[in-house]
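Support case: adenosine-5'-diphosphate complex. Customer-provided input:
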Amino acid sequence: MFIGTEKLTYTYMSGTPFAATALNEVSFSLGKGEITLIIGPSGSGKSTLIQHLNGLLKPSSGRVYFKGQAIGSDKGELLRLRRRIGLVFQIPEEHFFSETIYDEIAFAPRNLGLAESEVRIRVKDALEKVGLRAEQLQYRHPFQLSAGQKRLVAVASVLSMNPEVLILDEPTAGLDPSHRRNLFALLDNLNRSGGLTVIISTHHLDDVVALAHSVFVLQGGRMVLAGPPSEIFTTREKLYDLGLSLPSVTEIMHSVKEKGLPVKTNIYTLAGARQEINRLKGRPGR
Ligand SMILES: Nc1ncnc2c1ncn2[C@@H]1O[C@H](COP(=O)(O)OP(=O)(O)O)[C@@H](O)[C@H]1O
Ligand SMILES: [Mg+2]
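Agent response - structure generated as follows:
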């Protein structure tokens, strides 16, 4: 497996009266270059799972694997791991600590011990990848940016390490629709062009479901469903029971079927819906 867990269990404040088991025997395995969505109601364990994947939290029991090897607790090893697996926190701009955007993005490559000439190239590349202009922005204070630009700078500050895996914890919180679209277009592009493995926890299925190769559904710290979107979104009742919704396109296909038209319902992208409706009309799909 490229990245995954085996019976990962985690209890916060273990051994105290406040002990709370946030993950319960979660196992999964992902291949390189996949885009995976983690969905689940608030408190279901998404952030706890994500923080195990780059070694920020240590399992109470079970294991986390990267490139076939179990992640240990050696400090040097964990440091190396965090350079390969970049994590963008929810509302990452709250963690900004530098005076300029340049310094914010340069932090990780400087930590890698790179020469400043190389750091400069990394910063420029990372800003370009997220669609921001280095010349215009790099010497400004991070707080002079719009909410969407701040989020992109946070993503750039992780990309500047050239990670193999990018993990984003609810990256769309507080972003307007156009910034959401830009962010997901960027992830799609990084995945397609560079083979970046991406793991995203999100509540905004519509923007991102078309990119996903697999979907994990968490509830009460357990992995209750896992599979490709075409499987996960066929079972409407199950997701409703979990307090989750379907992608809008899938909801519409279900409604159309209820009206008596024999459409498939395991459709979750606009392109898929268009093809299915054309099929009904007896036209070849586009
Ligand atoms: N720092 C913490 N201390 C104690 N309990 C926590 C802490 N962080 C999360 N939890 C608990 O762990 C469970 C899972 O939380 P979390 O992973 O944040 O879920 P999600 O990201 O899906 O909203 C919840 O019951 C939450 O209350
Ligand atoms: Mg969370």
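The CA atoms of residues 200 and 247 lie 16 Å apart.

Case will auto-close in a few days if no follow-up is received.
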